[in-house]
Amino acid sequence: AVSIKTPLGYATVFGSDAGISRLSLGELFVEAGDVPEVLKRAEKLLCSYFNGEKVDFSEIPLLLEGTPFQKRVWNALREVPYGEVRTYKWLAHRVGCGSSRAVGRALFANPVPIIVPCHRIVRKDGNIGGFSAGIRWKRYLLELEGWRPNP
What we know:
Elements: E1 2-6, E2 9-16, E3 19-25, H1 37-50, H2 68-77, E4 86-87, H3 88-94, H4 100-108, E5 121-122, H5 135-144
Parallel strand pairs: 4-5
Antiparallel strand pairs: 1-2, 2-3
């Protein structure tokens, strides 16, 4: 695991040589020993991201466990560009689901927020909606990318 200090606390990336399996916001994890190269690459990209740089995480291999529906949702999320948002309804339509709530549950289960940008999904009224790491993190991530949510 690799932990990165951010303005809101730590972000810790977990994985192996094969890829990233989890990103925890607010958790500090210290592990002795060799750090896999993929974690070092993820650390570098996340540091750049938290410094306000537009980052493409697509080069980072992911090892995501979830249902086929969750994986469809997570893959569709990767299409939402940096600094832009889409609605829960847009995402539900994109994955062929009639339920924004089902999409919201899949977003909440996303094991790698930021890398799979679930924070870029907002309610149709412009409210930022929920986030697995809390609204404070979601608001910060959206503002870091230059998007200003409704108060």
